[in-house]
Design brief:
This protein has about 375 residues and is an alpha/beta fold. It contains 15 helices and eleven strands. Strands 1-2-3-11-8-9-10 form a seven-stranded mixed sheet, with helices on both faces. A four-stranded parallel sheet has the order 6-5-4-7, sandwiched between helices. Strand 5, helix 5 and strand 6 form a beta-alpha-beta unit. The two termini are about 35 Å apart. The model has no long low-confidence stretch (mean pLDDT about 95). It binds pyridoxal-5'-phosphate (PLP). Pyridoxal-5'-phosphate binds next to helix 9. The site of pyridoxal-5'-phosphate has 18 residues, from helix 9.
């Protein structure tokens, strides 16, 4: 079952045109869009039955480059273009690189991306290369990449489009608008994976702005989930060598640390950690039970929701929305490794052999 999303405009025009009044753009801003946003809100029958809540997945894989990063990138790149930039830079665990490369190439800007050497999923490398990015692999983690990106933007004529750029959060907040527009109300709880912590901050901004405008009464509690090996917001300490198979949230020193804490505290929410095993199990369950194949980091929210449910911390009857952040095809190796050997049965082009291979018995 799919709920209608957005303002009902058809066809969907991208987040800047759909939510122009809520964004820092003017009539002069050159809009760089690939039609991002307007993503499906899909009910999860399995999670709803299990938790006895109404659980909805905000499927951000349906954005043009396969992750929610496109929502922020349309605003950040449009703004960089308006300000006369000719080159843009970002640090990335992969999805920002893919998104930034697509939007900046489209805008005629030169995309420069810094990624942790050997630590990003092959599908994301392929995207960044195909969209024409200059890909620079840095010996170090995401946090080192971000330091270098910030310094480059300071000393050289390139514009920084990481989520420390406020335009990114402005664009990303539109996902919260879409959820409210689809449900005609706020959920009781919104669940989101947390890495560099821009997205949880953006959701809080979006829900709060709708509440302040009187569109909804009470914004939801935000439940954020980090990977156990990369959970600085849970421990309260920078993690020097963050480690997790969920590469998109492999961040030890989140740029939006304070904003994320504010989102957690002001919303009456939590930020907790889940293990890689819980993440990969949730990823597999989402694919098998809901038909929604996400990348590992994207399943952290579902893993966290299930962990809290198992601990008796999810009251029945709630409306819960969960952002699944990016597409499973970006990192098939991690998914298939966890799934285990699936033996392929090879047969001749023969009905009986195919039937036998499928364990079919003739009627
Ligand atoms: C970027 C990203 C995250 C983490 O979002 P933050 O804003 O860095 O907290 C999670 N999942 C996916 C798929 C991402 O691309």
């Amino acid at each position: 079952m799919t709920a209608p999303t957005g303002t009902g405009a058809s066809p969907w025009r991208g987040v800047i045109e759909e939510y122009r009044d809520w964004l820092p753009v003017s009539a002069e801003t050159p809009v760089v869009t690939l039609g991002e946003g307007g993503t499906p809100l899909v009910e999860s029958g399995w999670l709803s039955a299990k938790t006895r809540c109404s659980v909805w997945l905000k499927v951000e894989a349906n954005n043009p480059t396969g992750s929610f990063k496109d929502r922020g990138m349309t605003v950040a790149v449009s703004s960089a273009l308006e300000q006369g930039a000719t080159a843009v830079v970002c640090a990335s665990t992969g999805n920002t690189a893919a998104s930034m490369a697509a939007y900046s190439s489209r805008a005629g800007l030169r995309p420069l991306v810094l990624v942790p050497h050997g630590k990003i999923a092959p599908g994301k490398v392929a995207q960044a290369i195909m969209y024409g990015a200059r890909l620079i692999a840095v010996r170090g983690g995401f946090d080192s990449c971000l330091e270098v990106a910030r310094a480059l933007a300071k000393d050289y004529p390139v514009s920084l489009v990481n989520s420390v750029n406020p335009m990114r959060l402005e664009g990303q907040k539109t996902a919260a608008f879409e959820i409210v527009d689809a449900l005609h109300d706020c959920p009781d709880v919104h669940v989101v994976p947390v890495g560099n912590a821009g997205n949880i901050s953006a959701y809080w901004k979006g829900f709060r702005e709708y509440a302040e405008a009187g569109r909804v009464s009470t914004p939801p509690a935000l439940w954020g989930f980090q990977a156990e090996g990369a959970a600085p917001l849970v421990s309260g300490q920078v993690v020097r060598d963050p480690e997790t198979l969920a590469t998109a949230i492999r961040v030890g020193n989140p740029a939006s640390w304070l904003l994320a804490e504010a989102a957690r505290d002001e919303s009456g929410g939590v930020i907790e950690a889940v293990s890689d095993r819980q993440i990969l199990q949730a990823q597999q369950d989402l694919a098998v039970r809901d038909g929604v194949f996400v990348e590992p980091a994207s399943a952290a929210g579902v893993a966290g929701l299930l962990a809290r449910w198992a601990a008796g911390k999810v009251r029945p009857g709630l409306t819960i929305t969960v952002t699944v952040t990016g597409h499973g095809l970006k990192d098939i190796d991690t998914a298939l490794d966890f799934r285990g050997a699936v033996t392929e049965v090879v047969v001749d082009a023969d009905v009986d052999q195919a039937a036998a291979a499928a364990d079919l018995v003739s009627a």
